[in-house]
User: Fold these one by one.
Assistant:
Number 1:
Amino acid sequence: MWFYDNVTREEFEKKKDLVEKTILELGAKEYEIDLQYAQKTTSYVGVQKETYYSQRRIFSFKDDFFRVDEVLFNDKPYIVLECGTLQQLINNTMEDADPFPYDLSDEEIKNEVKYSLGIEEYPK
């Protein structure tokens, strides 16, 4: 159940598409793999639960693998990049980078992707 009034699921998915496009623009390559599990995200906000199945692309950059995912908070949805090795990808044990709000500007999203890919360090 989508529980936000300020953004639709479709609008949110378009922002995730923008993140994927940015990943490619920054030099990552799409990685073809047939995963043996469903790409499912379940978030809990209070007593509400949202489960979403998403067939997001996998990307390789340097020696790591990435996939766009989501984290739903009370105020709004956030985007997060899952990061890990090939073995972690296969085992569905990738780590989440720092999540960022979906409603950042395109330039701010690009910066967040740079941080997640390790191109730039997070500001201190």
Note: Helices lie at 9-25, 86-91, 106-117.
Number 2:
Amino acid sequence: MEETGQDLPAQGLGYYLEYFLDNYSTEKLEVKLTKKICARMIHEFMMNVLKISDVDWNSAGDLKDIYDCRVCANSIAQVYERGIMGVSSEKIFGLNELVSDSDAEKHVDELMKMTVPHN
């Protein structure tokens, strides 16, 4: 909204983000954000809004916990491969670790670097 001055409609964001925006109760929206949920949100936004295609997995396959959430695996790989989100410790993504407000801002900043043309 800040960039265009327009609200982003919920439809067309992808199943996960649409469900999140339309069906989550206020109580559920107050639950702390985990890295795996953050990765899924960023990945759906990349695909459905920014129209950024997935990249091949290179080093993401080496993450020891990549398959701890099978539905999250590709989302985690996509944000990890692009440097949007990093590991918690050596070869551990840390799927269930909480994302602080400052970390969330950093992730959005990294995502925005991908969308801004470089001179």
Note: The mean pLDDT is 82.
